[in-house]
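tool_call: predict_structure(chain=1)
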Amino acid sequence: MSRTHSLRAALFAGCSLSFAFIAQPALAQHEGEEGQDPNILVTGHAAGAVFDREALERGQAGSSDTAELLSQLPGVDAATGGGFSSMPVIRGLSQQRISILVDGQLIDLSCPNDMNTPLSYTDPQTVASVQVLAGVSPVSLGGDNIGGIVAVSSAPPRFGDGTAITLSGSASAFYRSNGDGFGGSLSLTAANASFSATYSGSYTQSDQYHGGGGDGLVRSTEYAKTDHALALAYRDGMALVQLRGGFQFSPYEGFVNQAMDMVSNKSWFVNGSFEDSFDWGSVELTAAYRDTDHVMNFLEDKLPGAMPMNTEVHSFDMAGKTELPLSMHDTLRLGAEYHHQWLDDYWPPVAGSMMMGPNMFVNINGGTRNRAGAHVEWERHWSSALTTTAGLRYDRVAMNTGDVAPYGTSMMQLADVQAAAAFNAADRQRTDNNVSYSLLASWRVSDMATLEAGFAHKVRSPNLYERYAWGRGAMASRMIGWYGDGNGYVGNLDLLPEKADTLSLALNLGGGAYGWSLDIAPHYTRVDDYIDGQFLQVLTNMMGMPTPFVQLQFANQDAEFYGVDVAGTVELFHGEGGNGTSLALAASWLRGDNLTDGGPLYRQMPFNARASLVHHQGALELSAGLEWVAEKTRVDATRNEPVTDDYALVNIGVAYDAGPVRFSLTANNLFDSAYALPLGGVSLGDYKATGVLRPVPGRGRSIDFGISTRF
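tool_result:
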């Protein structure tokens, strides 16, 4: 079984065995900063979905942010970051709590603001598919998470016939009027029956965008990046050996809701895998290495001033998995893995600054986070209608770090001086022994109804910053945090792992044969020792006056999440040759509560609903979409989370397939409506320039053009 197929099989073990075909249009910017083509067709349902290459191709003209494209799914949202670095949120659980796999590999946190998120290393122009599981996930897909799964896959190797070399490829380009964004991609494959070599590369760039209505320029939203990858593969019978390496460089990326911007990110990686199938089962071996150099400072919107912050990260993975068919009805999956992360975070002194000098600020000194895990999973087909999957896994997470140091020892640096001394005197070595398990069942009640149920107990250990960020000064603590709230965060050596119990249901009705579908997925999660922010103090400015921001310390609390996701489609007209008209509807309701302080949890999406109408006539495709988001009044008072008003956005699009070439033209936010992003946080880029603190505005009207071809 190939690696792509084995991953998909494991994902589908937590979803329906027979997926409905749902037209889920990616309407205007659900939470990111870019718009999207309002005609993306996604295979899936309310508990999970698969974005194939065709679906991503339809959305890439409107967004360079993979996480934003995923936010069209019920239960999936995107917390605003940079222009290509939004963070996915699945059923209220943030990116740090879900498992994101890029070609089967994890990508470590390598920034105190989590600017270079795992999905920032992907580009919708070159990704082959994205699989999303919002419900309970099998333990075979990895540990150290308590939420859903996002699995991004590059194109599998393509082989030719015989010894002759065959050439194939694809290319694309786009332009967006709002922000003057543009980019393109190229993929080339040379292959014969045994060997395959594929190059893929992309570039994307945008200036700052304008908000809708009178919101004006939204500062610190510019970005640029380029990605290159080379994949080699050799096939011999059922055996497949793959080697893939790549490099990403981003010279800049503004962060509207952070005090800092990214001024350089260089990352290279190499992945290798071997897989083969035998009479007794299949085996898969993988190894990966990634090196990242990340630099933060101020772009033009946050000048004057300077504050360089550097992070270096090295990661190494290796894993082995085997799948053993025990009988016609039973399959056993066994696996073991090891993941190593090394991180250095240091802030060079600023010449002439009394606060940021004369020495280097050592934030994390050679921090390590090593995880070793093993799992066993049993899948049984009790009948053609009933399938169950039960799994158990163990993960050992060992963490440590070296001594730290403040910028200096003056009185104005006293808080950090005292904090560094206490941190260096403490025992910083921590080891967590985490046990997780899951049970999933899928029952095909009839030809038009499938019922899924899942229960899981998952455990996640704190990351390096949650445990080891030590600075107590106002400035130092405000450099920590991925929340976009402007507040300061302090680590906690005594943090315990988060432990989540999740119950998820999904009822899938109808299907393609019936011309309609309806999916309803209620869910509930209780998290013990949930890592949230505990109030320490109100932060003051240089004059000692209070600011709108506070200092918080990571602390274990208790939380619960519950809600329901609904998706449905109906075929209004069906003609010959693929002609027809379809209507798609989707809605999500979610509530997240902090059980310790009794208040709402941070960054919980309010009720939202989407509708889209798509018509196909020969080579022509017409689409229209509407998105409505309710006002957000349940906000986290501890973080001073802003309230946002309700809004509605309208998008229209047209596409034409001229043989191998596809043209698309889309108007996102057609009426240029002004609105604030419910998960956007506060606009610190604008605050620096204007002195007015506002929620991050959404993107105004944009006319997006795309062209793509295959050869």
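agent: The chain has two domains: 3-149, 150-156+163-710. Proceeding to next step.
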